[in-house]
Design goal:
This protein is of the alpha/beta class. It has eleven helices and 14 strands. It folds into two domains: 197 residues, Rossmann fold (3-Layer(aba) Sandwich), CATH 3.40.50.720; 92 residues, UDP-galactose 4-epimerase, domain 1. Strand 2, helix 2 and strand 3 form a beta-alpha-beta unit. The longest helix is centred in the N-terminal third of the chain and has 22 residues. The N and C termini lie far apart (41 Å).
Length: 311
Amino acid sequence: MRTAWVTGARGFIGRHLCQQLEQAGVRVAGLGHGPWSEPEYTRWGLSSWVNGEVDASNLDLLARTEGTLPDAVFHLAGGSSVGVSYASPLEDFSRTVSTTARLVDWLRVQTADVRLVAVSSAAVYGSGHNRPIEEGANLAPMSPYGRHKVMMEQLCLGAGTNFGLRCSLVRLFSVYGPELKKQLVWDLCRRLLADQESLQLAGSGDELRDWLHVEDAARLLIAAADRAAPEGFVVNGGTGHGTSVCAIAEQVATAWGVRPSITFSGESRPGDPDYLVASVVRAKALGMKPQLVLGEALKDVVAHYRRILRA
């Protein structure tokens, strides 16, 4: 791989992916939402950045800017929140499904040799699991977010079946790391800044999640590009180990340096399964072994959040 484009490159995972690609000697260009100055995007490894929708006009612009078509496209643009998908399902559909449809149609016309790596989510699996979930498990999404990810996957796989587009689908579980200013760890730190005596969270606290550091997630995405095929390649992005929400809350509080009373409402949020832990047999076959262990890495993330929240 000599050249790569990343949609959603300005996002949390996208930035780390671009940086790793550039460090591996790949020329990287990005497309997505948000003004991004040249000093900022070059710091993350990009040669160029187009601010706008993932559509034919902006993809054409990126091709003109780069002067060539890419060897691989990493498609990270899309909805990223279960909660938002309930509040604005049409917006989530547009971000995830419509964007993917436009991308694969453009690739179908412009280049037959590209490898497409599309980021999906463990939300496609839904509930009812009690052991590490294999990629061949039935897809039973609970939320609009999960359903839209299934539609996105089908568009990619259909482009392979019908037009020969080589693709890989990476179903990421709970990705964490510095700079992610949303989701559980960030929310816990914000709340501890305001109240160090007590924390009340939704659910039972026994919900199990598989936490994967963003640097390991980026490594998996790059490895998945080599397996892209017209028949599609699907791989889970996790560690194979589940950690309860209660345990995460306790670890975050300890890293923050406090011991609050932690309680749970007993009421689960919509679209929130009790168990999401990955089977990682396929990931291991790619040579992937997580390099950052949750306990130690989480301390660094909490320290980072504490600095920026107190600034």
